[in-house]
């Protein structure tokens, strides 16, 4: 064991705890039992079988209010693996559930036996027919697919609010729709073809002209029985009419019985049935969508009304005017959304009764936009609008920032409201539809019903389509609360069906939540047809039992998860999963959601239980060590939960007092440390990579992998010992070369000025010279200590850099230009909590400017571009995302290159200072998709603006990245 290996005990929850009724029991501490584990390992290989109790726990939760712990999690790579899993399940009498993003709200991505992760190896999009169609794999997020399609002026029809995280497989399997899809742009209407694997293992490609012939040969009984069901339905005129009527409004409750009416062959019927089948009929391995035009001329308004019913009553006006979206938000939703960045703070003061409509028109051109705006103005006339707070304008706008803010507030409905719920409560998201003409009446009835049962729910929805969502919070650990919820559901379902003939699930699919009420909505005849369809396609009941179909009238009360309190920073988490696609470790160890899920399970356990011990043993590496600490999860989370900050705090908790003292000592003597580091890097050129890799490898084993960096061949040579000479007299800004740029030089193949020389030169050319203070050595942005959780060292350096910067800038009169985005972020924001009160006041007077902003906003307007490179690919860093200066990176690059590309899969490289040298597997995993995209073609320049991230991308791609400011210097050099 390494000398300084941290003790798992340091992270054991300290509070006294009693065992929760839904905890993982002691008998499961060893993880997947034999022979299941051994048999699946032999079948698939050890790398595809996740069996530790920590693996099972982290997959047990999703965005729904349910929690079921699987027996095992498998991670297939291809259809052969899928077929092998299904064959095994048939032979052993086991059950299989498919899970992709885990953003489903009704428990349909949870299983109690074999859970199959179909996200990790199932991503990719192929654009067809110049964007008219797209072939997409099921693990691809909607946002990722639309990013590629946007280049062709196209987009997908389904647009769920969870597009940042939800995947195509789940969208199709649930027939999810969203803000604009309604009944005409959803998956059922826009899927051209599917490739899927039936429970028997038979693979069907519905686009294959011979698909029916092949299926008839492989599954004659299936074909015969599907056609028999079709004939039976079509022979019943009343049932046929009922099925057609049910889909005149949004409906995802039960199976798509209209597939029997719309399809004329078994393959066509199956294509329709697979949409909305929630993984109960097979595995969707590929989808071909018919895409839709991306109309870029947008006009939107957020209109405020005195009540929910008044807002609902206005909806028909905007439908008639041609609005593509009319979204409803009640007062609870509006007030909760102030936690979302960009939402006006005064919304917190809105009266509870207030409601708003987000109305949007989209047109392909200016005349179309003007026509829509005239129609919108006519629709607004005579409406009883209110302006309860100063930020309310009740006006249509074309301004993209304002429109983006409106949508951020709307899309954060579940997470923002859920994040503000009482601590320890479970969140239920309900979703129903009524005929749009009855929306106002439905709103009034819903509010009355909530009050009767003691719920103060938040309401929002796709009002244009009569589709409402509402959120209920209750404590699943209290039987009385569960009973109250159960009574409400009984009354709500009867109200929706008997009074409005509505859909109990409009777009979230049946799942476990509404399965007991399926017959209430559809009646016994149609419901029995659904059961028969399930038996025809999956006669052994292998796939997703108790999802969609369940005869237990209390099935929706089974498996409700408790939400034990955890660290304050993470406690608002509703486990929605929006954070996962942005996380660098998502394909390696754990995601932010899983880190919180694991922590909650520790809190369910009695102190010292075998399960808690196993979770703690795994948590150190899986959660803490392999967190890049980049905090992009905070950007993705609508309520700004920063799991990276929590992991840094856990690192701090693991430090011994001696480690903290040593870290503080390095901060106090950083001038000597910096000089020694530069000398060591210079010496490395003479020693050779292989020897250094061996020496550092041995040191890591002896001391601790999370403390001793591993030497990587991509590490560049040393920076020049002296920085460029500059003058304080006449300087327009103070230039602060980050310590990484004082230690490491540029790419080995670079011929030209260093980054400090380039910044000095290009600033002078623009008539805005910069000054480098002579005493920058020994200072740092403090990120070195902050990222590792060394609080004492962080305090030392944070205060030192602020005091120095205040002096250099003459009390903030000159801006401080920083040449590494992570260091800009550190000095501008991350040091603040560690400053003394006096230095916090000094910090407020500083103007800290990232070099990208300096170049784009101050230098470019004054420079003459003399030469351009042909093509450039960019790596926007996570710090740039936090700072909001990705646009400036692109602007500078576009001045230097004829073609500029930002990869669709660009994300945090996870090099994170030296974390890529501590855990190189983290960077390898984090950059895999981006590197593959970058290496799919050649570029003339590979650009970023942070030296350690450039090294990380060098390692990932085999290319040489350098700062875009060095490229700007070359482009403007006389």
What does this structure look like?
This protein has about 950 residues and is α/β, with parallel strands linked by helices. Helices cover about 45% and strands about 10% of the residues. It is built from 39 helices and 25 strands. It is globular and about 90 Å long. The model has no long low-confidence stretch (mean pLDDT about 95).
Task: Indicate the topology.
Layout: H1 36-44, E1 49-50, H2 53-58, E2 72-74, H3 79-92, E3 96-99, E4 114-117, E5 125-128, E6 133-136, H4 142-150, E7 154-155, H5 168-174, H6 187-190, E8 191-197, E9 203-205, H7 211-218, H8 220-234, H9 237-246, H10 259-262, H11 266-274, E10 283-290, E11 292-293, E12 297-305, H12 308-321, E13 325-330, H13 331-336, E14 355-363, H14 366-380, H15 400-411, H16 413-419, E15 426-433, H17 439-452, E16 458-462, E17 467-474, H18 479-500, H19 518-537, H20 592-604, H21 610-625, H22 632-636, H23 643-654, H24 657-668, H25 670-687, H26 689-702, E18 733-736, H27 739-743, H28 755-765, E19 770-771, H29 783-788, H30 791-808, E20 816-818, H31 821-830, H32 837-844, E21 848-850, H33 851-859, E22 869-874, H34 878-883, H35 886-896, E23 897-901, H36 915-918, H37 920-934, E24 941-944, H38 947-957, E25 962-963, H39 964-972
